[in-house]
Design brief:
single chain; globular; C8orf32 fold; 199 residues; 7 helices
Length: 199
């Protein structure tokens, strides 16, 4: 999928902000733990992806009621939904000077009902001319997302025939709808009732 940068300047996809707080000690400590001597950007990016995908449970799978939205909180509590896990991976990548941003899909049930917006990450390691989307949501039966800079290996492929959408925008910061839902939910049950249905 061809992504459209929200900001033309690649520096926007390396910046820290309140949610993608990659200068926070918790993020820096995680980066240090994931970094191996001699690793290139590709190897580190894959390690960071697998760390977020495999060691931070999606709260819908684990049943954790807490809602996280800052990368540092996701890494500290080891908890988050797809939006939060995507923010955490973006922070881990930017901390190693790998451009990364947030992108989204609109997914539904098999009959086209119950739409919801699903969060992904796009990255562009040095030497790569195109953005590549990855999905750190977390695998489970029926979901097998893998790290790939070539053919996409996301958790779900959109089904346009039932109204699902791949949004082409590449966001440097979490969209207002996403951040509002995360920041204002007292727990995951409340968050689930107020998730964005479209961007």
């Amino acid at each position: 999928m061809e992504l459209i940068q929200e900001h033309p300047d690649i520096a926007a996809y390396l910046a820290a902000d309140e949610a993608i707080d990659h200068e926070h000690p918790a993020v820096r400590e995680t980066v240090a733990a994931l970094t191996r001597e001699g690793d290139d950007a590709y190897t580190y990016a894959r390690t960071a992806f697998e760390y977020v995908r495999d060691t931070i449970p999606h709260s819908a799978d684990s049943g954790d009621p807490r809602v996280t939205w800052r990368a540092s909180d996701v890494l500290t509590t080891r908890n988050g939904i797809c939006y939060a896990k995507s923010i955490a991976l973006t922070a881990l990548l930017r901390a190693r000077a790998i451009p990364a941003g947030l992108c989204y899909q609109r997914l539904t049930d098999d009959d086209g009902t119950n739409p919801g917006v699903h969060g992904l990450v796009a990255l562009r390691p040095p030497g790569h001319e195109r953005w590549a989307r990855v999905d750190p949501r977390g695998n489970k039966p029926g979901v097998d997302a893998q790290f790939s800079l070539g053919a996409e290996r996301l958790a779900w492929a959109v089904r346009e025939e039932i109204g699902e959408v791949d949004y082409p925008a590449l966001h440097a910061t979490p969209p207002a709808k996403v951040l509002h839902a995360l920041r204002n939910a007292r727990d995951r049950a409340e968050l689930w009732r107020n998730l964005p249905t479209q961007l």
